[in-house]
Structure formats: C-alpha cells, structure tokens
C-alpha cells in the first residue's frame, strides 16, 4: 500500500521548469513590434479610444502571454509588466483620464424619482392589508 501511495504521489508531482527570463525578454519585443505595426493603421488622434484598437491590443496581450508561457514564466510577471508598461508609455502617455462631473438632476425630477417608489410601496402595502382583511370574500 505504501508503495502505491508513494507512486501515486510521485506521479502527481510535476517537475517545475524555471522561468527563462532572458528568453522571454528576447521574444517580447516581437510582440511590441507587431503591436506597433498594427497601431500604424489607427490615426494617432484615436489612440486614446480603446474601441479603435481593442483587437490589436488583445493580440498584443495574447502574444506577451504566449511568449511568457513559452519561456516557462507565469504571466503577468514583473518583467512582462515592465515591457507592457513601456508600450503603454509609448502609445498612451497622452491619454488622460477625464473626471466625469456628476450632477444631481433638477429638484422636480429628483422629487418625482423619489416619490414614485414610495407611493407604489404604500399602495402595495394598502392593497395587501385590504386583501388580507377581506379573505372571507375572496
């Protein structure tokens, strides 16, 4: 029994490969080059609009993940993240996050939006109470 258990545990144990960081760093620039070529198709004024290049960015992400996995590295890892951050700085450094200024609706609309659910709740409670008192007729 001990021999079978030892064999079972040994079979379940997988040999872990060490991350080949130099291979990964050698291969990642090809992903960046491909992304750069695809981004040339997009007007630089539209680089901050993700919908204009989402497929290109998805291909870039998959490429970096594939190259990291081929080098027996997990993804994302600090080196891959550093490379991706460099690509972001190259293409998206001028994209600022505009803060949306939220405003309350006018008082008339706000009052209506508050009173409608309150009135419906009161009406439903009244209907339930009335129906429960009239159970002999229903």
From TrEMBL:
The record's keywords, sorted A to Z, are: Cell membrane, Disulfide bond, Glycoprotein, Membrane, Receptor, Signal, Transmembrane, Transmembrane helix, Transport
Q: Where does it primarily localize? A: membrane
Task: Spell out the subcellular localization from the entry.
Answer: Cell membrane
Span-the-membrane segments of this chain are: 109-131
UniProt GO cellular component terms: cell surface; plasma membrane; receptor complex
GO BP terms: calcium ion transport; cellular response to hormone stimulus; G protein-coupled receptor signaling pathway; intracellular protein transport; protein localization to plasma membrane; receptor internalization; regulation of G protein-coupled receptor signaling pathway
The record's InterPro entries line, in alphabetical order, gives: RAMP, RAMP_sf
- Report the membrane topology from the UniProt record: Single-pass type I membrane protein
From which domain of life does this come?
Answer: Eukaryota
Example of a GO MF term: coreceptor activity
- Please report which protein family the annotation says this sequence is part of: Belongs to the RAMP family.
Q: What is this protein called?
A: Receptor activity-modifying protein 3
Organism of origin is Oceanodroma tethys (Wedge-rumped storm-petrel)
């Amino acid at each position: 029994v001990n021999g079978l258990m030892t064999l079972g545990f040994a079979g379940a144990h997988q040999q872990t490969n060490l991350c080949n960081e130099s291979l990964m760093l050698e291969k990642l620039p090809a992903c960046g080059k491909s992304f750069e070529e695809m981004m040339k198709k997009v007007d630089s004024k539209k680089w901050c609009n993700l919908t204009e290049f989402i497929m290109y960015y998805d291909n870039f992400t998959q490429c970096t993940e594939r190259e990291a996995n081929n080098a027996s590295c997990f993804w994302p890892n600090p080196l891959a993240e550093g490379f991706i951050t460099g690509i972001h700085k190259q293409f998206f450094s001028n994209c600022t996050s505009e803060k949306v200024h939220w405003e309350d609706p006018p008082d008339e609309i706000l009052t209506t939006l508050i009173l409608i659910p309150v009135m419906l709740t009161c009406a439903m409670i009244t209907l339930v109470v009335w129906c429960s008192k009239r159970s002999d007729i229903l």
